[in-house]
Structure formats: C-alpha cells, structure tokens
Amino acid sequence: MCMAEIWIAGFYYSGYQVLAGRHGWFPNEMAFLLYYVLFGLPAIAFLTAALAPTAGERMLKGFDRAARLSARETLAAILCASALSFFLITLVRYGILKDAAISDDEHAYAFMGQLFATGRIYVPSLPSALRPFLDNQFIINDGKMYGMYFPGHPAALALGEPLGLMRWIPTASATLTVSLAFGVARRLFGLRSGLLTLPLLLVSPYFLFPSATLLAHSTAAVLLMTFLYAVLRLHETPNSLRWWVVAGLAISWATLTRPFSSPFFAAPWLIWLAGDLWHR
User: Which helix (H) or strand (E) holds 160?
Assistant: First the structure.
C-alpha cells in the first residue's frame, strides 16, 4: 500500500504539463480516483464487516419494512431527503468551500450565464492594453468575449440571474434530482430500492460537492434523470405525447450541457425502449 501511495502521488508532479485539448482524465483527476480505490473501497469493506454482525440483521428487517410504507409515509421520506440534500449542499457550499469558486470553469459558466440573461452571447473585448487583465483560459477574448463551453448549463444559470439566484440553481437542480432518482429506482427495482436510493445520495460526496459549485454536474444530473424517468414512463404508456416531449427536451438540453457523456448515457435506454416498442 505504501508503494501504491508513492506511485499515485507521482501523478501530481505532472501538473506543470500543458494538457489543453486533451481528452480523458487529467493526471490529478486520475490520482484522485486511484486514491479512492486505494483507501475508499477498503474503508467501505471494513465498515461493512464491522457493522454486519450487529446492525446487519436490523438493517435487513428495516429494508423489508420499507415495502409496506404508505403513500403518505413515502412522500414524507422523499420530502425529508430533498430538504436534507438542500441543507447538506448549502452546508458544503458555505462551510467547506466558503462560497468560493474552485476552478476557472465556474467563472466561465457564471460569465456565460450573465450574458445569456441579458439576451447576448458575447460582449466586445476591452482595448488591447487592458484585455490581459480579464483573460481566462475558458473565455475567448479576441475582440469579442464569450465562453468556450456548450450553452446548456449557462442557460440554466441564466434562469436564476434576473432574481439574483444564479448560485442557487445547482442546489435546486440537485434537490430535484433526489425525487427523480427515487422515481427511477422505484420503477426499475421497486419501492424498497427507491427508498434506499435516498440515503445513498445524501452520503455521496460525488453528489454533494459538485452540487455546491457552479460546475455543470448538477444540471446534467437533473436532465439525465428527467430523461430516464420519461423513458420509463414511456415504457408504461408509449402513446403519451407528454413524456415523448419531456424525454426529447431533457436529452437535448443534457447534450448541450455534457455533449460527450449524455449520448452515451442515453443510447442504451433508447435502444431498450425501441426494442420494447418494436415487440409490442
């Protein structure tokens, strides 16, 4: 394990390389994932082994009882989980991240969102002598200033800008994702799995931390969950025009947010839905 730690730490020494235009994970991102494999997975295994003898049976019984919850109790669980996710994301944003941007990406997204909110996609650059003071690696500044990213996430941020709520859009998107994830899990695996989805989201740092920033993860998540929920509803009622429209709009907006990830996420579900409809 010590040798693995030394090897992983070596990834950080490549931070001075210019990797612009590279596809895939950067060395620092790879190091983060490998650290999770090295320390996170064993920690989960040890925690499971420690809890299994004492709490395992009670947890299984509680999981079985979840299938007998009434509609009102289920709704209460969803609302409580949504409210708790809003609180935890806000706590991460102010308590850990100090409501500060963690990368230049956020500045670019905020700039694009503010532009879109005014009905523009660019503004004229400042005179040449002053341009370097506003340079950002993710903002084009060659006579016109505009962001280099796809417009899906900035368009979502622009919805909150007129009310001064742009920074709350990711939090609201993540909160809505909680109920959508429950709906997807319940339709795929049943009520118990839907309820189990709620606490799993609340303890996931990959869900909480990105949602506390202005990065595009929360927007992509809520759009992809909306698309998947609509696909599952179409599986049940294929003649529903409403769900066809919802699925189309959600995956289109998601593709404009994360153009590489969204089509790969959607493809197997679309193939499954097409096969299902073909055999009816």
Answer: helix 152-160
